[in-house]
Amino acid sequence: MAVRACGLIIYRRLQPAPSPNSIEYLLLQTSYGDHHWTPPKGHVDPGEDDLQTAFRETQEEAGLQASQLTLIQGYRKELHYPVRGKPKTVVYWLAEMKDCNTEIKLSEEHQAFQWLKLEDACKFAEYEDMQATLKEVHQFLCSRE
Predict the structure, then answer these.
(1) Distance, CA of 41 to CA of 54 (rounded, Å)
(2) What is the pTM of this model?
(3) pLDDT of res. 28
(4) pLDDT at position 91, please?
(5) Which residues pair with 81 in a beta bridge?
(6) Among 92, 91, 88, which residue's Cα sits nearest to residue 72?
(7) Across all residues in the chain, what is the average pLDDT?
(8) E strand segments, the chain
(9) Contact criterion met (CB below 8 Å) for 33 and 21
C-alpha cells in the first residue's frame, strides 16, 4: 500500500499590493537524511482526513495554527514518487499567512526554515516535481490577481 502524506504550501506577501515579486514561500530543512527542503507535510494518522493532516503537520512542524492561515480555494496538488522502493502520495493545499510576521517555531524534525522567492525556493527544493509544483502555485497565484 502506498504511503500517504499531506501538507500545505505556505506563502506570504511582503506588501499588500499584489505583485509576483512580493510572494515568498516557506520551506523547512529536515534534520534527518540528506537535510532536504520541503513544505510542512507528514503522514496521515488513522481517523484523519487529508486536510486535517495537512493542518496538524503544519502546526507540529512550523508552529502555525490553522487560524493563522487562509486556505486558498481551487488549488490541490497530488505528487506520486517512490521512497525506498515504495510508492508515496503527497497531497498539498495552498495557504496564505494572515500576518507575514508570524513567528515560525520548528519541531525537532527540522533544523532550519527560509522564506524564499520563487527562484530561490526552486533552488532549495531539489526535487523536480516540487520545483514544478512551486512554479505552478506561483502561476496560479499570479493568475488570480
Answers:
(1) 6
(2) 0.94
(3) 98
(4) 97
(5) 88
(6) 92
(7) 93
(8) 3-13, 23-30, 37-38, 41-43, 69-83, 86-97, 110-116
(9) no
Alpha carbon distance 52, 71 (integer Å): 12
* Kind and range of the H or E run holding 58: helix 50-62
Reported confidence tier of residue 16, pLDDT bands at 50, 70, 90: low
pLDDT score of 17: 63
- Sorted by sequence, the CB contacts under 8 Å of residue 73 that are 6+ apart come out as none
Cell of 145: 490577481
* Strand 69-83 versus strand 86-97 pairing type: antiparallel
pLDDT tens-digit map of 68-77? 999 999 999 9
Domains of the chain from N-terminus onward: 3-143 (3.90.79.10)
Supply the DSSP symbol for 130: H
| Radius of gyration of the chain measured on its C-alpha atoms | 14
Question: Cα–Cα distance between 54 and 40 in angstroms, integer?
Answer: 8
- CA distances from residue 118 to 3, 133, 143 in whole angstroms, order as listed: 28, 11, 15
